[in-house]
């Protein structure tokens, strides 16, 4: 039996960036992303999308990037294939990307830029780019908000890849046990909340603005990835870039 989607506030979003519980929870998120294998799934989807388009993305925007660590893991997997001199734009409401994270991107030959802005305002004012990613970000939004977000993303980039929680009972119940892995109360609460707000089936594809599988439309892929992750990827057909 499928679970009804349920959106609730997450504690990390309500705590100041320098709150000790928030800082601990962000460290926990690195391990949780590792459990979910999101970096591997996202990097593989980006490589597949770039291969199908015959063009490697040189500018990638990561929406809701937080401290940038999740995107850094993706970049480390992509760098041997995409080479150096790529640019990653890390968008979030708060700029909490450390100097060490910036230096880690630079060590790959990648340039990291940060943008502190509301995601909708950012999408409305951005210039066309090569690819957009979102890791554990889309589940914060209602269906109506996602429709608006996807409309903005589809205008800007020919490739969009997201990793989200799978909304199934197994993932919800497993999230309750993260305290056994040393995660704090904020991380356990937010993991359960995130799983309840996640996605299954073709729910995200149904919100994408353009018709799929048409010469001037999009190829959409949506499926489980590993045990805990729901993967969504959209690739524009018949054009390397969206019209400006």
Q: What labels would you give this structure?
A:
disordered C terminus; alpha/beta; Rossmann fold; seven-stranded mixed beta sheet; 244 residues; globular; 41% helix; 7 strands
What does this entry look like structurally?
It is a single chain. By secondary structure, the protein is an alpha/beta fold. The chain has one domain (11-236): 3-Layer(aba) Sandwich (Rossmann fold), CATH 3.40.50.150. The protein is built from nine helices and seven strands, in the order αααβαβαβαβαβααββ. It has helices at residues 11-14, 20-36, 38-53, 69-82, 99-107, 119-125, 143-156, 169-175, 185-196; strands spanning 59-63, 87-92, 111-116, 131-135, 159-165, 218-225, 229-236. It has a seven-stranded mixed beta sheet, sandwiched between helices. α3 (38-53) packs across α4 (69-82). Residues 240-244 have low confidence and may be disordered.
In short:
Helix content is 41%, strand content 18%.
Strand order of the largest sheet: 3-2-1-4-5-7-6
How many H/I helical runs? 9
Report the order of strands and helices: HHHEHEHEHEHEHHEE
The level of helicity is 40-55%
Question: If you compute it from the alpha carbons, what radius of gyration comes out, rounded to the nearest whole angstrom?
Answer: 17 Å
- Mean of pLDDT: 90
**What top-tier CATH class fits best?**
Alpha Beta
Number of strands: 7
Q: How many domains would you count in the coordinates?
A: 1
The backbone outline, from C-alpha atoms, is globular
User: Structural class of the secondary elements?
Assistant: alpha/beta
Strand content: 15-25%
Which oligomeric state applies? single chain
CATH topology descriptor:
Rossmann fold
The CATH architecture category equals: 3-Layer(aba) Sandwich
- CATH homologous superfamily descriptor: Vaccinia Virus protein VP39
Q: Please report the distance between the alpha carbons of the first and last residues.
A: 44 Å
Largest sheet: 7 strands, mixed
Low-confidence stretches: 240-244
